[in-house]
Hints:
By secondary structure, the protein is an all-alpha fold. It has helices spanning 2-5, 8-12, 16-65. It is rod-shaped and about 85 Å long.
Amino acid sequence: MASAHGGLLAGAGRLTALAELAAVRESWERRIQAAQGECGSLAGKLREVARIQGAADEAARSSLAAVAPCKGDER
Length: 75
């Protein structure tokens, strides 16, 4: 965002709307940084959930592999 707004205030003078735009941009930058931190803290937890789910899937697959399928009209 900074590069997109670079020189905007200097080139257009000190218009009130441009000053407000800078304040809004700073607010968005803070929120984006906070969201990046939140996502970063979830990464390890999500990997652990995927590992556990993979182990559960493999256990279910192994259990089902031991069951003999029906032949013909057997039930």
